[in-house]
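To illustrate the input format used throughout this study, we show a single complete record. The first block contains the structure-token representation of the backbone; no residue identities are included at this stage. The design step must infer an amino acid for every position from geometry alone.
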């Protein structure tokens, strides 16, 4: 019986990063979003150019990396550094740049408030661009207590003022689960 064979590792393989990232990949949305931002207006202006050493990374590059990490639940600067080396999506997004962990951590530290402003804009972006999202936040059915009772689905419309009764019911549910 024959098995499926892989490619020879020593054979040349010609492909561009563009070919390796699908047209509907989320990194393309991140790239488009960050490219549209007015970074100096948001507060990303603390880039220091020194006369000696390497030039700094553009704030947009590090912002793309940070947003990618946030959306993929990668919070550690060291893990983000490793992802830049091994992850094809990040290689495409950062144009093959590989900042080290210290650069990433310093960027976070220097731009704490501008990062918050950027995330506020990112939450608004899908709705403004006509993309799905930003309409309903739902809580699926889950066991409410040890008896296995099910909680009904709670909906919160992000565009409407919050329903205090539904929010209180949710808080009571959470308190009940932690107490028991």
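Output of the design step:
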């Amino acid at each position: 019986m024959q098995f499926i064979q892989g490619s020879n590792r020593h054979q040349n393989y010609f492909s561009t990063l563009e070919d390796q990232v699908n047209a509907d990949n989320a990194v393309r949305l991140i790239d488009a979003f960050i490219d549209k931002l007015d970074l100096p207006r948001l507060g990303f202006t603390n880039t220091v150019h020194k006369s000696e050493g390497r030039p700094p990374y553009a704030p947009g590059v590090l912002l793309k990396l940070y947003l990618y990490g946030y959306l993929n639940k990668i919070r550690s600067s060291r893990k983000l550094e490793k992802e830049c080396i091994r992850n094809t999506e990040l290689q495409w997004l950062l144009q093959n740049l590989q900042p080290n962990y210290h650069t990433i951590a310093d960027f976070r530290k220097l731009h704490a408030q501008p990062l918050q402003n950027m995330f506020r804009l990112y939450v608004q972006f899908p709705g403004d661009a006509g993309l799905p999202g930003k309409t309903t936040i739902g809580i699926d059915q889950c066991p409410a207590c040890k008896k296995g009772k099910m909680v009904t689905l709670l909906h919160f419309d992000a565009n409407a003022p919050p329903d205090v009764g539904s929010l209180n019911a949710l808080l009571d549910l959470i308190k009940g689960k932690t107490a028991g």
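Structural context for interpreting the output: The radius of gyration is 22 Å. The CA atoms of residues 36 and 180 lie 48 Å apart.
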